[in-house]
Specification:
The structure holds two protein chains of two kinds. By secondary structure, chain A is α+β, with helices and mostly antiparallel strands. Chain A is 26% helix and 33% strand. Chain A has helices spanning 42-50, 72-75, 92-102, 107-120, 136-148, 166-183, 194-200, 218-223, 228-233, 351-356; strands at residues 4-13, 16-26, 31-35, 57-62, 65-66, 78-80, 154-158, 186-191, 203-208, 211-216, 238-245, 252-255, 258-259, 272-277, 283-286, 292-301, 305-312, 315-322, 334-338, 345-348. The two termini of chain B are 43 Å apart. Classes of the chains: A alpha+beta, B mainly alpha.
């Protein structure tokens, strides 16, 4: 039994199910991300937990108490909205104090707690500013402070970083994690950005078309994606279709007659299989010294690494190579690709996974 | 050549509007001001001499001051009632979904499509001594009440006419509101009413300001409604000016009253605007 549990939670709009039979159990102090493309039902799920959207079916329990039908103002959860939803006519300090005021906390204690919270988010010197006088990152921290000052049992974050520019987003990710760890609040974050979800969560929940398709720790999600959709949505992935040749464990996958060494697997002869290989797990070698020869057709410099597109007999593959400070092979050069067999994953293509891809 | 033309362009562009404004507003206003200083003689009419006598007469006569006070009172009461009715109305309207929102918006704007004179006659039929309102009061045993030719009748009809001018600016400012701001207040523990009072209302104050300025200005200078529902005795500023011009034929005195009403209206509205806007600007930016 988790601290926050969702039991077959659903939301149906007319004949469209936005969220279908979602089950989730979140432990106390855990940071869980709901990851998925827009329209997958992640925000609706968050709003049902917040009490802003009424579920069509299912239950929400917080610390053993059923809160499914409770009004948002008695749930006591902290919420950071995508637009931050700061009160524009109140100063930073008044914004943060609002929740305490509603709880009738005495003035002296209120001021003290607001001050401590603003210190935690590094905004102490901006207490008397109005939201419009703040930058995006500062507004976001005000929103976090306002949600956390009421010491909520659960903090809900709705796409908290999507309105920030790339550099600030990265900084705020770690800042968010630091704040969450220092107060130890159970947190659920909704995001469509896989990098964001992977870097700061304890567990990531992937949602597709209203359903949860995988719940796992970030690295397991990355290494062992449950569906073709997840493997392409989380990180970059080379996906190839092949046929299993040979019987059982002795066989290998083949594409256009080329055998590719892969992880331990066993399929009947002639089975159609899907192969997946992460770009960063491929090593670039000189021609003839790898498992597969090819020609570089594109080369992109991305600062910390190089991204190549290599044309091979089995198709075009993306390869990423860390930047070691020297210029690597260029476009048109003949190269060979190498990888450890374990990193090439093989799955049988059945009717359902084929449809999902 | 092209430099000279580009320097002239903005002047050329504003000139049609500026000329229209000059011809239709500034010139008549200046003529009215000049007229108000002319000497008037009951025997011979307007003389080509100048005097402050009219201004002195108006500000020292209780009759005129009473009418000015009534005008102020009626306009202020109308503005207050419009705000009390119009703001909740706008909020409900903003919360509605189509098609109901379009339907009710039309219901609110509808009165503007009917001539103000027709509406005033409508109200005089409803409020008259044997009108529908009094018949209803009699039926439930309250007896009849004198409504027509009272300030009450004027205020009721003015509120009816002016309501759209309050609803529309407030509705517009509600449209600009981020709906999650209200949701944020709920999640922080505010009840629906507290969220409205502490979070929504302060943000629509600019809409209320412009609404009340329009309503006050139009009510203070209203002519048809006080004329038809106030009767011959209960005068307001605009009907008084009309009487001076058309019945007494004392044009300079009429002009004097018109100018005083204009200046008073201007002072009240500017002061109110400054007061509310200064506060709203500081916080809403």
């Amino acid at each position: 039994m988790g601290f926050l549990t969702l039991a077959s939670l659903s939301k149906v709009y007319g004949d469209h199910a936005a969220v279908r039979d979602v089950d989730l159990s979140v432990a106390k102090g855990e940071f869980v991300s709901l990851l998925g493309p827009s329209g997958c039902g992640k925000t609706t799920t968050l709003q049902m937990i917040a009490g802003l959207v009424e579920p069509t079916g299912g239950k929400i329990a917080l610390d053993g108490r059923d809160i499914t039908r409770e009004k948002p103002n008695t749930r006591g959860l902290g919420i950071v909205f995508q637009s931050y939803a700061l009160f524009p006519h109140m100063t930073v300090a008044q914004n943060v104090a609002f929740g305490l005021e509603m709880r009738k906390v005495a003035r002296a204690e209120r001021d003290e707690r607001v001050k401590t919270m603003l210190g935690l988010v590094h905004l102490a010197q901006l207490a008397d500013r109005y939201p419009r006088q703040l930058s995006g990152g500062q507004r976001q921290r005000v929103a976090i402070a306002r949600a956390l000052v009421i010491v909520p049992p659960v903090l809900l974050l709705d796409e908290p970083l999507s309105n920030l520019d790339a550099k600030l987003r990265e900084e705020m990710q770690f800042e968010l994690r630091r704040i969450q760890q220092s107060v130890g609040t159970t947190t659920i974050m909704v995001t469509h950005d896989q990098a964001e979800a992977l870097s700061i969560s304890d567990r990531v929940v992937v949602m597709e078309q209203g359903r949860m398709t995988q719940i796992d720790a970030p690295y397991r999600l990355y290494e062992r994606p449950a569906t073709a959709f997840i493997s392409s949505f989380v990180g970059k992935m080379n996906r190839l279709d092949g046929i299993w040749r040979g019987h059982g464990p002795a066989g290998t996958p083949q594409i256009n007659g080329v055998s590719l060494p892969c992880e331990q697997a066993s399929f009947p002869d002639g089975q159609t299989v899907a192969l997946s290989l992460r770009p960063e797990k491929i090593l670039l070698r000189s021609q003839g010294q790898g498992r597969l020869d090819g020609t570089i057709v594109n080369r992109f410099f991305l600062g910390s690494y190089w991204l190549f597109t290599v044309e091979t007999p089995v198709g075009a593959l993306s390869v990423s190579v860390p930047n070691h400070g020297e210029e690597p092979a260029g476009e048109g050069d003949a190269v060979a690709l190498d990888w450890t067999p374990v990193s090439l994953r093989v799955e049988a293509v059945t009717a359902t996974t084929g449809a999902a891809a | 050549m092209s430099r000279a033309r580009s320097a002239l362009t903005p002047w050329l562009l504003v000139s049609p509007g500026a000329l229209l404004f000059l011809a239709l507003v500034i010139v008549p206003l200046v003529l009215t001001v000049i007229l108000s200083f002319h000497v008037y003689d009951h025997g011979t009419g307007i003389k080509n001499e100048f005097t402050f006598a009219h201004y002195l007469a108006v500000v020292t006569d209780d009759y005129y001051l009473g009418i000015f006070l009534r005008t102020l009172r009626v306009a202020a009461l109308t503005t207050l009632l419009c705000a009390l009715i119009g703001v909740p109305e706008a909020y409900i309207l903003a919360r509605m979904r189509d098609p109901w929102r379009s339907v009710f918006l039309l219901v609110i704007i509808g009165p503007l499509l009917v001539s103000v004179v027709v509406r005033a006659f409508g109200w005089s039929m409803l409020l008259g001594s044997t009108g529908l309102v009094n018949q209803a009061l009699e039926a439930v045993g309250f007896g009849t009440v004198k409504l027509l030719y009272t300030e009450t009748a004027i205020v009721i009809a003015l509120v009816h006419v002016m309501l759209p001018f309050m609803v529309i600016p407030v509705w517009t400012s509600l449209q600009k509101l981020d709906p999650s701001v209200e949701a944020a207040a709920w999640t922080l523990g505010a009840s629906r009413f507290t969220a409205l009072r502490r979070v929504v209302m302060p943000q629509v104050s600019m809409g209320m300001l412009s609404g009340s300025l329009i309503v006050f200005g139009l009510s203070a200078s209203a002519f048809a409604i006080p004329g038809l529902l106030g009767g011959r005795r209960l005068k307001m500023a605009a009907t008084l000016v009309y009487d001076e011009f058309m019945h007494e034929l004392n044009w300079p005195l009429g002009a004097t009253i018109a100018i005083i009403v204009l200046v008073a209206n201007l002072i009240i509205m500017l002061a109110y605007n400054r007061m509310v806007e200064a506060r709203a600007r500081r916080t809403l930016g």
